[in-house]
Amino acid sequence: MSGGSEGVVQWRPIPIPIPLPLPPPSAVITSEGGSGGASLPSFSLASLTAGGGGGGGGGGGVGEKESEVAPLPPPPPPLPSPQQLLRHPLALLALVPNSVALFSAGAISGAAAKTLTAPLDRVKLLMQTHSLRAAQGGGKKGFGFVEAITMIGKDEGIKGYWKGNLPQVIRIIPYSAVQLFSYEVYKKLFRKKDGELSVLGRLVAGACAGMTSTLVTYPLDVLRLRLAVEPGSRTMSQVALNMLREEGLASFYGGLGPSLIGIAPYIAVNFCMFDLVKKSLPERYQRRPETSLATALVSATLATLMCYPLDTVRRQMQMKGSPYNTILDAFPGIVERDGLIGLYRGFVPNALKTLPNSSIKLTAFDTVKGLISAGQKELEKITQENQEKVVS
Predict the structure, then answer these.
(1) Which of 234, 239, 287, 350 has the greatest CB tally within 10 Å of its CB?
(2) Which positions ≥6 away from 129 have C-beta within 8 Å?
(3) Which domains does the chain have, with CATH numbers?
(4) Phi, psi (5° rounding) for residue 67?
(5) If you compute the radius of gyration of the chain from its CA atoms, what whole number of angstroms results?
(6) In this structure, are residues 148 and 123 in contact, taking their beta carbons and an 8 Å threshold?
(7) Tens of pLDDT along 288-300?
(8) Per residue in 54-67, pLDDT tens?
(9) pTM above the 0.70 mark?
C-alpha cells in the first residue's frame, strides 16, 4: 500500500443474544444500564432498590429508582374437617360467636333455675303481699310458711305451685341473658388501663347489669306477680289486657324505682363476691363446679340479707290498689302496719329459693364460660395442625 501503511486484522467475538425467560407479572424492573454496551434489566418479586451500572466503555450510571409492592398474604388454613371435630368436639363451641354462647348460657341457666324453684317463689309472693290483701279484704293478718304451702295445695292442687311460672320463664330468659352478658360487657368497660378490675369496678358493673336487665323485663315481672297473687284462673294475655284497660300503661311499671334501687346492690354484691371469692382460691379449685356452687351460695346469702326489704316494698307497690306511691311512703307504712318483721316476711322461702336459684344460674354460666375457653384452645390446635400441613 502507499505510504508504507499496513493493514491490521483483529478477531473479536461477536456476542449472540441468549433469550431469557420473561419475568413473572409481579416482577419490578428497577434499573437500566449505562452507555457502552447492552445491559439487561434486573427484576425482583418483592421490593428492591438498585443503582444503575456503568457500561462497557465508561459511561455514567442512571440515578436510583425505588418501587415497592406489598407481599401477598399467606393463604388461610383450611376449616376443621368433620374428623377433626369428632376428635375435638369442644371446638364446635368456639365456632359459635362468644356473645351468642354467653347469651344462650344465661337464658338456659336462668329458665332452669326459676322452674325448679317456682313453688318456693309462689309461697314467698303470697307471704310478702298477704298483709296488704288482708287489709283490703278483711282476712286474718298472720300467714306462715307452712300455712301458705298447705293453702296452695288445698285450693289449687299441684299446678298451683307453678302458677305464674310461664311469664316468669318468659321474663327470665331475656333477664338472665341480658344480666350475665351485660355484666361481662360492663367489666370490660370499667377495667383500668393496666387491665385490672378493682372491687369498686366490679360493684359498679354488677349494679349496671342488674338495672339494665330489670329495666328491659320489668312489665313481665309485674304480670307474674298479678298471676301469682290474684284469685281466679286467668291467662297472661287476659291479665295484661285488663291492667291496660283499667289501670293504664303505668301499671306495668309500678314499683320500678325500688326495683332498680333493690336490684343494683343485690347484683353488685352477689356478682362481686362470687368473682372475688373464686379469684382468691387456688387455681386447681377455681374450675371445679362444686367450688362455683359453694361460692354462689355464700354471695347470694349476703346479698339477700342486705337487699330483701327493698324487694318487699317493691312487691307491695306492684299490687292493685296499693296505697304506696313512693319508697318513702312504703317503708314507714309497712313498718307501722307489720313492724320491722314485715320487711322480712317471706324471707325463709325466698332464701330457700334464691340460694339454689342463684347457685344454679351462676354455676351453669361459669361452666359454659369454661367450656367456651376450652373449645377455643381446641380450635387453635386444629388451626395450627392445618397451617403446618399447608406450609409443608
Answers:
(1) 350
(2) 225, 229, 315, 316, 319
(3) 99-378 (1.50.40.10)
(4) -150, 135
(5) 38
(6) yes
(7) 777 888 888 888 8
(8) 444 444 444 444 55
(9) no
